[in-house]
Amino acid sequence: MAIPMPTRQLFIDGEWREPILKNRIPIVNPATQDVIGDIPAATKEDVEVAVNAARRAFSRNKGKDWAKAPGALRAKYLRAIAAKVTERKTHLATLESLDSGKPLDETVWDMEDVAGCFEFYADLAEGLDAKQKAPVSLPMETFKSYVLKQPLGVVGLITPWNYPLLMAVWKVAPSLAAGCTAVLKPSELASVTCLELADICREVGLPPGVLNVLTGYGSEAGAPLASHPSVDKIAFTGSFATGSKVMTAAAQLVKPVSMELGGKSPLIVFDDVDLDKAAEWALFGCFWTNGQICSATSRLLVHENIASEFIEKLVKWSKNIKVSDPFEEGCRLGPVVSEGQYEKILKFISTAKSEGATILHGGRRPEHLKKGFFIEPTIITDVTTSMEIWREEVFGPVLCVKTFSSEDEAMELANDSHYGLGAAVISNDAERCDRISQDFEAGIVWINCSQPCFTQAPWGGVKRSGFGRELGEWGLDNYLSVKQVTLYTSNDPWGWYKPPC
After folding, report:
1. Model pTM?
2. Closest of 71, 193, 163 to residue 126, by C-alpha
């Protein structure tokens, strides 16, 4: 598709700036493998400039220009950004599909969610002022106490490539609403729309330095951002391995972090369900976003009474999924993001086969697509719980299936994982669903569905899937510190020490 990629620089202090070392990274269209543009490659030198710009913006005019400004002022900017995202929705969605390989229908939906996220946090920014000085009940009448919620300061935001703009905005919108200033470092595999967000911020007149956008490699830009002494908090979404490194860097300065890491989420299907409805949710839960979603319910547990018929339906539904260029009408599965990811997924599948699993469907490039990083929707059976494909995050369109005979067995299998991001159950027994939702070791539970996500509801995991919550009011709290203020109200002296003569 002949859509020109914008040529941008780094966005620092409200201006476009060439990287100090002048390096750039090629943009590869994952559907064609063609180089279609490039992005600037920031290094530690650029991180230093950007962090200093964010620090100046935070403290400018003693904080009155942003950090201590009324929430209504910050809300005005967030709503202006939302309006521009809506205005540019089609263009942004097109760029994101070219950059990441996601079907256009998905990226259009993502841009609508981006605008909605800014609107939601604009509302919370306005409401923040009214919540200041919330009283605290004390047991002594001679004291009064209240709470202030204040922005943490300069925050470093490190974001992934599977939802390039949306997951960046999950961090940008609440951090700005709280009064923080930010340095955003998106993934080098898909950064184009984050640079377009910078252009929107420039267009609406966001004060210089409030949001800075540095594209570049994790080792060259992300690592120095995580360890920078003038960054007050790091919010990270990505792999467990990288998250561990970010935590280690932040720990040297006892810097707070929030982490949304990998997942290997279970979906339990009982024998009292509509098989076609359950089959569609099972496939959506794993193949949405080209299978590249941290919360993917990629471990499917099916009751043995329906397993044979249900798996047959899964294959039939999978054969009906349109795998194509993201811009073709009706595309429901595009290419994975990069050659490296493509090779990694195929290696997972090959290893599973060598360990004795059955590749029931897919597992290879579609015959009709000779170029691009395409992998057919893949269903794997005859897996054991010790297999790599069952235990490790694949981050691709690969669904593993096991059977169970009892609810207790299903729960034991579901919770037998280092990860704990999402989990789902499909059953017509409401009491059973309630029981299981409480017993799942996960931060997010879906009942009779998989993957719906709403800005208003909290998002995050347990175990090696991370800690902290994004979205909803919890997302705003991520970027606020709580300060206790206590006032002695009595006219009498304290009376603890004997007064001097």
Report:
1. 0.97
2. 71
Measured distance CA(254)–CA(240) in Å, rounded = 20
Rg (CA), the chain: 25
Could you give the C-alpha distances from 153 to 91, 178, 236, 450, 481, in angstroms and in order?
33, 9, 16, 36, 9
Read off the pLDDT of residues 4-19 as tens digits, 9 standing for 90 and up: 899 999 999 999 999 9
Q: Checking DSSP bridges between strand 154-158 and strand 143-151, what pairing results, if any?
A: unpaired
The residue written with tokens 């090959």 in the block is 350
At a CB cut-off of 8 Å and minimum separation 6, what does 244 contact? Answer: none
Give 231-257 pLDDT, tens digit per residue.
999 999 999 999 999 999 999 999 999
Token pair 């509509």 is at which residue?
A: 274
Active site residues: 260, 294
Q: Which residues 6+ apart lie within 8 Å of 451 measured at CB? A: 284, 285, 288, 293, 295, 296, 297, 422
DSSP-assigned states of every residue in 142-162: TEEEEEEEEE--EEEEE--SS
Residue 209 φ/ψ region, left for φ over 0, alpha for ψ in the -120 to 50 degree band, beta for the rest: left
